[in-house]
Amino acid sequence: xxxxxxxxxxxxxxxxxxxxxxxxxxxxxxxxxxxxxxxxxxxxxxxxxxxxxxxxxxxxxxxxxxxxxxxxxxxxxxxxxxxxxxxxxxxxxxxxxxxxxxxxxxxxxxxxxxxxxxxxxxxxxxxxxxxxxxxxxxxxxxxxxxxxxxxxxxxxxxxxxxxxxxxxxxxxxxxxxxxxxxxxxxxxxxxxxxxxxxxxxxxxxxxxxxxxxxxxxxxxxxxxxxxxx
Length: 229
What we know:
This protein has 229 residues and is of the alpha/beta class. The protein has helices at residues 34-44, 64-71, 146-155, 180-186, 195-203, 213-220, and strands at residues 2-8, 13-19, 23-27, 47-52, 74-78, 88-90, 95-99, 102-108, 117-121, 124-126, 131-132, 135-136, 165-167, 178-179. Helix 3 crosses helix 5.
């Protein structure tokens, strides 16, 4: 299996290239890095089968539309994403067969946004903005909800095997991976005794809006097009 973690430094966004012998998927691709993805796919001899977003992003413009235009890949988001431009919508428990022996199991994990998903890949999980390394995704916009995120974390993601390797959608301190056990032990947002305590913690954050939110969200509802035309 090919597994590459790529970074867009301006937004600290991780994009993941998952591949088998001939076919691949890109998860959370960034529009500015479109040419880099296409070059890498060509160098590795891979056909892009799927472009996948874990949710409608507020901090960067997606490359889904651009990848579909230049590679013919199927673009994917999870229900209830409002991006009507995607080729395929998936639901909780659906499996995306990337190539022989390489598959992604979708897990609906609302809370950061109502359309947030994580993807289980064998011994690892791609957590988008649901679970970060020593953090969790904010819950104060795009139909986010702290109580819902608590249940997504503690009833779903954190019940994966303790040695499951965690690969987040962002990191702002240079961390590249973790494990479920490590996050349960050391993630400060997970050291709460109840759902109510988690809600109080998240509601007290008072974070500034993402820098590119006003541009990114409308564009991402159009799979990366920055204007309706």
